[in-house]
Specification:
The protein is mostly beta strands. It is built from one helix and 24 strands.
């Protein structure tokens, strides 16, 4: 039996997908056996399938073999020995983290967002060599920048640095991953890249934000902190999860509330502004 040209067994693996990520015009799916599938717009290589163009149905993304494994022993059509555990989609690029702690990137290389030390487009996944020593457990892709969290709780950022979104205290572009010094001493467990801002969550549930906050995305009294600044608007609740959109941030607190810091116009009604600071908007109680 086939569904959309795929064996039913392959479709079943995607239906049980442990993780899905969406970029601007493309989507990524991690199957139940650790493979990556992509579909949507691939005009800048963001699908990772070796060519540019649109794909209406999911197609598998093949990771390269580990450095210790000879390319001759593994063809491009075979399954990688590493299982993917996490994917992230940005504007025109994609990231994947494996169970071995490796980070792969592909798509547009503009502003160094892929972390390879150059601006070259990658049509297939390429291992980020600068992060082979720390074991990566989480990653996020923004408009022109990327974030990665190591198993030691370190945060790395690279790509477009405008608005201070990289958290290094300036607006410089980084072609390769750089450690965010302002968060040393904190154990970061997750980090998310918005269009022009970034947020990082610590093991204790403290949220830090940096980058463009002119639409209230950072919930700060100032608009563009270039180094990580603690988000105090959550009070004593603490956060257990966070997500960054284009110009807003969603936080799930330990009290099971979901709150938003956002631009309260158009499709995002109800947000309340106090000077340059957006007050948190209670969205709903998480079940």
């Amino acid at each position: 039996m086939h569904v959309c040209g795929y064996p039913a067994s392959a479709v079943a693996r995607l239906l049980r997908a442990p993780q899905v990520a969406c970029g601007h015009d493309h989507s990524l799916v991690v199957s139940s056996d650790g493979e990556v599938f992509s579909f949507g717009r691939g005009n800048l290589g963001q699908l990772g399938q070796g060519q540019m163009g649109m794909r209406a149905v999911p197609a598998r993304v093949c990771l390269p073999p580990p450095p210790s494994q000879s390319v001759s022993t593994q063809s491009s059509s075979t399954v990688s020995a590493e299982r993917v555990v996490h994917v992230a989609g940005g504007l025109f690029h994609s990231l994947a983290v494996t169970d071995a702690g490796d980070l792969f990137s592909w798509g547009s290389g503009t502003n160094g967002r892929l972390g390879h030390g150059d601006t070259i487009m990658q049509l297939r996944p390429r291992r980020v060599a600068a992060l082979q020593s720390p074991r990566i457990v989480h990653a996020s892709a923004g408009c022109g920048h990327s974030l990665a969290v190591s198993d030691k709780g370190e945060l790395f950022s690279w790509g477009q640095g405008h608005n201070g979104r990289l958290g290094h205290g300036n607006q410089e572009t980084k072609m390769s991953p750089a450690l965010v010094q302002g968060l040393l001493g904190h154990v970061i467990v997750r980090a998310f890249a918005g269009w022009e801002h970034s947020v990082a969550l610590t093991r204790e549930g403290v949220l830090y934000a940096f980058g463009a906050g002119d639409h209230g995305a950072l919930a700060q009294a100032w608009e563009e902190p270039a180094t990580p600044a603690r988000v105090c608007a959550l009070g004593d609740d603490g956060a257990c999860d966070v997500a960054a959109g284009a110009e807003h941030t969603l936080v799930r607190t330990r009290a099971a509330d979901v709150v938003a810091f956002e631009w309260g116009l158009g499709s995002q009604p109800g947000a309340r502004r106090a000077g340059h600071k957006m007050l948190p908007l209670h969205v709903f109680k998480a079940v």
